[in-house]
Amino acid sequence: MPLEPESAKFLDRVRSLPSRRPGPGVSVDEARDATAATADWGRPGPDVASIVNVEVGVPGGSIAVRVFSPARPRAVIGYLHGGGWVIGDIAGFDAFARALTNASDCAVALINYRKAPEFPFPTALSDAEAGLRQIADDVPGPAGVSALPLIIAGDSAGGNLAAVVARRERDRRLSARALPRLAGQILIYPVTDHDFDTASYRDAGNQLFLTRDAMIWYWDHYAPGDVRDDPDASPLRAADLRGIAPAAVVTAEYDVLRDEGEAYADKLADAGALLARTRMAGQTHGFANRYGLLPGSAELIGMIRQFVDGFLRRSSESARKPGNNEGTAAPRPNTGRSFSMKLAERLNRLGTETAFAVSAAAADWAGRGNTIYPFHLGDIDLPTPANIAAAMDRAVRDGKTGYCPGGGIPQLREALAADVGARRGLALGPGNITIHPGGKPVITKFIQAVMNSGDEVLYPNPGYPIYESQIDYFGGVAVPYRYVPDASGFRIDLDRLRASITPKTTVLIYNDLQNPISAESTQQEKEAVAALAIEHDLAVLSDEAYFDMRYSGESTSIASLPGMAGRTVILYTFSKKYAMTGWRLGAAIAPEDVSDVFAKLSTNNESCTTQFVQEAGVEALTGDQSGAGAILATLRGRRDAAYEALAGTRGISLAKPEATFYLFPDITDAVHAKGMNGMQEFADAALHATGVSFCTRLHFGRPQPGEDRLYARFAYSGLPAEKIREGLGRLRQWIEA
Predict the structure, then answer these.
(1) Where would I find the H helices in 425-481?
(2) 156 catalytic, yes or no?
(3) Where is each Aminotransferase class I/classII large domain found (predicted)?
């Protein structure tokens, strides 16, 4: 994807500075001055329960360790900051460490190792190990902190040090110089080698915050000459990583260090030591500590929490101190039990439905005995209508539990053709219908069927995150189009959409009655979108998951407009109208030749959609509709309760949508009134203060250029009206306090 917009602005500011950044002919003092010039960019970090500064004695002097702790830490992260081993200090990571402490529920200890060229290799490494020992032995702070699992982490040069410390910890487990036992390692765009001729080093598009010339300059100051061949300087050159602490590796798309970081991840995977890896799309080097300035920092902090979750699942709280370590100093043979498959590179492009990450945070908070008001996930807590459940039971009793046609059972295809055709004014037959296990597979199969590698696909942002994930995964180029606020809610920025179309654009994804913002196109807007599709010969996916979830008015489909039926695939789902989210039943309505392809893909992927579930789908469409009507009436009451509560809260503004089960209020003034640094900090604080859990705009794609307002999504489908009023009442009291 393109360089993230805030990062581009940041780089413009950096280029405007009079100070000289590291590179040929630049002195160390000049480079340090350039770093200092950006130190106050961004915002202060949040308060934490405690901060303790420790001086650690090392040969020839001392180093500082600053420990940030929450009230009840579950682990300790020893963090080694970046700066090419030459520049920077822990003060530049203060805001990042504060935010990470609160988000991860871990104590975060910043280790201020000494810098080259005054202290060349291996001084920084020795200092890192001394700081780690101090953390493990007797860090002051909350009771019990020194008995917690220990994780080593670092970015850039700090990631280099963290990787080496983790390997040396393995090698010394039975020696007199043993290091504290590690539960995991987190390596953020790490330096792992001194090969300046990798593809990412040579790519002109990567010469941004960190350049090839700058890295040569850093290496010359830290480890000049052949000493850099030592695996303690270049960890990629280590012979064997088996037995090392489990690792998570994060790289940036536009970074000269990208390839060596991913090569090290490959080596960890070969050794059975890789917990997770991710390449952060649209990011360049140096975003980690730019908390409150670059959105990648907040995203990374959320990832680190998940990494810690993974480490702790793998790790018991066996003693970390040298005398209690088990195992051997030499790595164990790689038996089948420890084998780790080398995963496909395309998995680096696979995203996820980020609302589930919010679910994990809410579940964790609930697990500590707190009341949760779950507005974050668009699930429905209402029962599926009884006649539909009875039809499934009947089908099971009748033995309809075997394989069935990949395209779906004939009676459901016929029922859908009749229902969808009548409601949308389309002439449809069973040949236009294929049945799938939910709506998501329709997105995947549509992308597989109509998009070639390198094709550009227009998709809504903010929007359902699976669109971008599948475009990227199958090798397309995801091109976002945006919405802008108006009196009725939001409208598509048609000028921006039109300007985004190039000769490589082949596909448009259109989601009327939109998740997350509940936007509904006017007839004029829908016709304008259709005209662009026809003019540029685009295939269209019309995601109509909420077509029947409306409280007034009547839905129409873009497929019913002249010239659109033959180029449009409609995504249909039973999940919303019939409260069947977990049943996994959906359909694609498409031209017959495309339906044949979808059926073939289904045969290859899942063979078929569960037969007795399809039988229930027939009853849903052709049987008693009172249950669906009752669901809609209940959701209307919940919509009204949620809207009234939010609209009456100071600092929040929103329109009242007539469809979906989401509200997408502007929370900008509320965030600023609470003195927060951004949407995610506001959401985290709201969860802990009120129990109200919700997604932010950041969960539905990266903010686009020109966005200066902050939004949140509240799904009201999973709470009764009285709980909606109770939870949002608590939120209002907290905001207005």
Answers:
(1) 440-450, 465-473
(2) yes
(3) 380-727
**Lowest model confidence (mean pLDDT) among 23-37, 512-526, 637-651:** 23-37
Element housing 711 (H / E): none
Residues forming beta bridges with residue 509, ordered by sequence position: 541
- Give the Å distances, CA to CA, from 498 to 178, 507, 543: 62, 13, 20
Residue 504's pLDDT band (cuts 50, 70, 90): very high
DSSP string, 300-337: HHHHHHHHHHHHHHH------SGGG--S-SSPPP--GG
Token match 């497929």: residue? Answer: 559
CB 156, CB 258: distance < 8 Å: no
Query: What pLDDT band is residue 346 in, cutting at 50, 70 and 90?
Result: confident
Amino acid letter, 456: E
Whole-angstrom distance, CA of residue 493 vs CA of residue 93 = 38
d(CA 603, CA 587): 15
Of 146, 156, 200, 521, which one is the catalytic site residue?
A: 156
Q: Are 491 and 524 in contact (CB under 8 A)?
A: no
User: Domains of the chain (ranges plus CATH)?
Assistant: 5-315 (3.40.50.1820), 355-381+628-736 (3.90.1150.10), 386-623 (3.40.640.10)
| Separation of first and last alpha carbons in the chain | 41
CB distance 653 to 489 below 8 Å: no
Take residue 122 and report the two structure tokens written for it.
């291996």
Q: How far apart are CA 98 and CA 95, in angstroms?
A: 5
What average pLDDT score do residues 94-116 get?
Answer: 93
Tens-place pLDDT, residues 258-310: 999 999 999 999 999 998 999 998 999 999 989 888 888 989 998 999 899 88
Classify residue 705 as left (phi > 0), alpha (psi -120 to 50) or beta: beta
Task: Name the helix (H) or strand (E) containing 707.
Answer: none
CA 360 to chain CA centroid, nearest Å: 13
**Amino acid identity of 726?**
E
DSSP string, 679-703: HHHHHHHHHHHH-EE-EETTBTBPP
